[in-house]
Amino acid sequence: MTLVDLAAPPTVDPYPVEELELDLRWWAAANYLTVGQIYLADDALLDRPLTHADVKPRLLGHWGTSPGLSALYVQLNRLIRRTGTPCLYVAGPGHGGPALVANTWLEGTYSELYPAIGPDAAGVRALFRQFSTPGGISSHVGVATPGSVHEGGELGYALVHAAGAAFDHPDLLVACVVGDGEAETGPLSGSWKVPAFLDARRDGAVLPVLHLNGYKISSPTVWGRSSDEEVCSYLASQGWAPVVVSGDDPRLVFTDLEAALRGAHERIAEIQARARSGGEDLRPGWPAIVLRTPKGWTGPAVVDGVQVEGTSRAHQVPLSGVQTDDAHLALLERWLRSYSPELQFTAEGRLAPELAALAPDGDLRMGSTPYANGGRLRRPLDLPVLAGYAVDVPSPGTTSVETTHPLGELLAEVYRRTTTPDGGGDFRLFCPDETASNRLQSVFEVTDRCLQAEVLPTDDHLSPHGRVMEVLSEHLCEGWLEGYLLTGRHGMFATYEAFAMVSASMVVQHVKWLQHAADVPWRAPVSSLTILLTSTCWRNDHNGFSHQGPGLIDAVIPLSPAIVRVWLPPDANCLLSVADHCLRSTDHVNLLVADKQQHLQYLTLAEAAVHCAAGASVWEWAGTESDDGSAPDVVLAAAGDVPTLEVLAAAELLRREVPWLRVRMVNVVDLMGLLPPDVHPHGFTPEHFRELFTDDAEVVFAFHGYPRAVHSLLHGRPGAGRFHVRGFEEQGTTTTPFDMVVLNRMSRYHLVLAALEHARRTPEHGAALAAHCREMLLRHEDHIREHFEDMPEVRDWSWSG
């Protein structure tokens, strides 16, 4: 047993023996309930000898990490009772779900939220029977687990979620358990940088507990086989001041862990008090704990002559033959009885009163904390009136601006309105070192980039107290924002489109969280996760093929229709309108795709509001339909800013060269509207779909992303085969903007050729126009190689009507 002091020594007050014994009894009760959830379908409190029939037919769950999770829960309860500190528990080893369920049942929260799982013998039986069974709960610490803001199924995000929860919550302590298997993942490895972004003046504290039990599912972990000095040296290099608690004797481990937590809390209080009284310490050395305990601690030591406790064999179900093997069944009963359930529970199956008294009061219970049910803390975002940020559009397609710049001005005002006197707030922008690159730099008129480091005269808008979060990691930006939203605040993640795929799996997991949260009645709505994708595949003039990839759209559109929204605003006013809607919304994942470069603008703010609310509109000013009500010969449709430009240029060519061809121009801003209304809540009604695309006209559709995405959405619509979609076809390089659309066969000339091919009527002079288009494509290729820029008639094009 060691308590390795690598920081300021913690204050070690006596831990009264009687209090230690009570804490160990709570731990025993938690371990009992954990094992029972994994194994038992009946005889929940061992009122008689176990039989094979009492065991579940399918044994699921993870025992190995659970005792350590419960030990920390016990000690955090003690800290909360002593100090009154609000505490959020983030369990990185998510498969330790039964341990967190057990502890929240013991503290009373579980039965309050789930009355069918009562605080008595019947409730214990129901608790066991629901675990990892159909219609019950999963084995993870997930949405249904009281006190959780973190789904532990996909490892790597515990510490980043913990940091997001701590930002702008100055009174909160976030205790984050990091398993040594999870510590091997890329996102978690990057997450140790939290001290470089945690402002003691206005943020809460993150207390990492690196739980090293030596093994993952079947092999040793890297850090489990590393020395204390190696582990602590690394953590110290990232800004932590770690102590190590290790051993297998519960009394000694509990004593040392209590001292370590007490010392960590005192150190955090000192850091925060100094910062909040005007002191400045950019590298204070935030406390961290390295906890080494055996895998499967207190479980069966040896099974069938093979060591189990302290090995990977304890990871999941240490006794796998209990349904049929008498010896295994006897071992299970001996294991369960080792926790003395008759001592921890009354005859009625209730927690013994002296143990129930160990739970903190009310919302200080970690299962009841409002920080884990952020909708209870959420307040509507104070958004300004959009008119002050609108682009003046005197006529369509003649004014050019950087589309995302007005949004940056709007977000600057949001910062002004939401910043509190102490420098905190409830809105943040998260961006991987690209805020200015993405033309959102107006936010720096109000606040700075955050970094807990010396500020040099050459630095640009950098401050330890800045509230724009820039770090060159999509994982950290995405995860910070998730933790921030789930604990009651608002924000936006802006990133280069291609590299949003780095964190695509995180987006998928967040959609799953929100999807299941909708079925948990006590979960209050939280602010939507809004992702702005810019620097898109069509406008990376100086970057190569690596920067060209619209794949996040494809990643999200198959997910829950109740959650996912994909927006493709064609201009700045539409982006303002959509962003305003998204920042007001709750329980959605919003994907906004808008390029940062100069683009023509088409709609006034009032027109944009109507267009975005409808999801798609016919732009009559761009078409050549007759007034007699006859159907168009062909429909040109666009979704996205560059596709809109090319469709309009194609429409103008058709208007000029074959004016008798009836052409309808449709712009789609709400991509999910293409789905039928019985599939997605935003799906266009059959009547609206007909008003846009008719019943039978051929549609040439220019799309921002991969064409297959549109085809998948149109499945189920009448005549889906009449849609001819052009989009990104994995063709790209360092080239001109127009060459990108040429390479991917989405240029105005390709669209005109497609329109002529699919129109109802073959127009006069159609062959001449087709020949002109092919000639222009050849001219384009020669021109860019000679002049390194697009042809003037393309580069300087604007709508002439």
TrEMBL record:
Gene3D superfamilies: 3.40.50.920, 3.40.50.970
Entry keyword annotation includes Lyase: yes
Superkingdom assignment: Bacteria
Pfam families, per the entry: XFP, XFP_C, XFP_N
Cofactor: thiamine diphosphate
Biological process annotations from GO: carbohydrate metabolic process
Lyase in keyword set: yes
Xylulose 5-phosphate/Fructose 6-phosphate phosphoketolase C-terminal domain boundaries: 596-799
InterPro entries: THDP-binding (IPR029061), Transketo_C/PFOR_II (IPR009014), Xul5P/Fru6P_PKetolase (IPR005593), Xul5P/Fru6P_PKetolase_C (IPR018969), Xul5P/Fru6P_PKetolase_CS (IPR019790), Xul5P/Fru6P_PKetolase_N (IPR018970), Xul5P/Fru6P_PKetolase_ThDP_BS (IPR019789)
Annotated Xylulose 5-phosphate/Fructose 6-phosphate phosphoketolase N-terminal domain residues: 24-376
Family listed: Belongs to the XFP family.
Name of this chain's protein: Phosphoketolase family protein
Native species: Modestobacter muralis
Taxonomic lineage from the root: Bacteria, Bacillati, Actinomycetota, Actinomycetes, Geodermatophilales
